[in-house]
User: Fold this.
Amino acid sequence: MRAATAADPHPAVPYWRLSGFYFSYFAGLGAFMPYWSVYLQSLGFAPRQIGELIAVVVATKIVSPNIWAWIADHTGQRMLIVRVGCLVATLSFTGVFFHHSYLWIGAVMLVFSFFWNAALPQFEATTLSHLRQETHRYSSIRLWGSIGFIVTVAGMGPLLEHYGTALLPPVLLALYLGMWLLSLLVPEQAAGHLQLSHQPLRQVLQRPEVAALLAVCFLMQASHGPYYAFYTIYLEEHGYSRTWVGQLWALGVIAEVGVFLVMHKWVPRFGLRRLLLSALLLAALRWLVIGVFADSVALITAAQLLHAASFGVYHAAAISLIHQYFQGRNQGMGQGLYSSLSFGAGGAVGSLYSGYLWQSGGSLSFIIAALLSAAAFAIAVVSHIGRK
Assistant:
């Protein structure tokens, strides 16, 4: 990366410090998301309770990102919020070692996730403010988060199969501690200076294309509910080993990394609208294949490759559109809304419906996920999302 000069007062992008935080954050996610439901199952919780406990984690994203975004947009102290969020999340997670009742685990997850969910949206805004007019380069930094996810999701499968699920909480605690330490390396000025001129937030939200984009993001993340909450359990019920399931999780994120490596070329060539529509349609196909053809190793493997579209292309396109629509002092709130309505509200709804329907068969949950993705595609088609 270039160095700053007298003629160029902007500091160089701290590529490796930004990438390092993404690596650590998503390494923690790679150990938590695929295996936390398995750990809860080992404690004796029923599918309905597992769905509810995971919904607690994702539901805090409805409130938490918006609170922290308001503070960040009015103070400019984005990295301070990231650091405090990581530290308190790490400390609160230690509660899982003290008691294993349903209410206690739920309370620990509530506090943990409220602060954990404070970090990423503000770090995303920090990264994009660094990139300024080169936001298409976002994926080249964000891909290190995917690599961190791959390392832990692929490694935890064999470890848990050999040593048991009791290993998961101490590993997670170590990863969260590393996340906090790496957050200290990103300079506070990475948040940039607030712009004084900007469109009022209310006017931004009243634009039809913005409302449509937020609705699409909600539906897309709701469609991921069965995948994030029950994919590991679902495949184990169909005879897949935990090690093999871990490799399938890793395969999906490897495909995602491949997309991130070329998105900076795809965005100028195809445009954000076409990329978003393609991702939504392929997501519907992915969930349908998982729901109907779980016993086919070849088709399940192919479905995992579609993670490149259902998350990689979708997320890169959506976050770029959010950055375009929410300018100036609204940047933090834009990222907060994206996180709260999609990963928060959408993720909570997805975890809940998949948990409640699981006794009727996991296939039904994935078929509903396909319908939700198809609905998101229909909204995107008829709206002006991404149109110049």
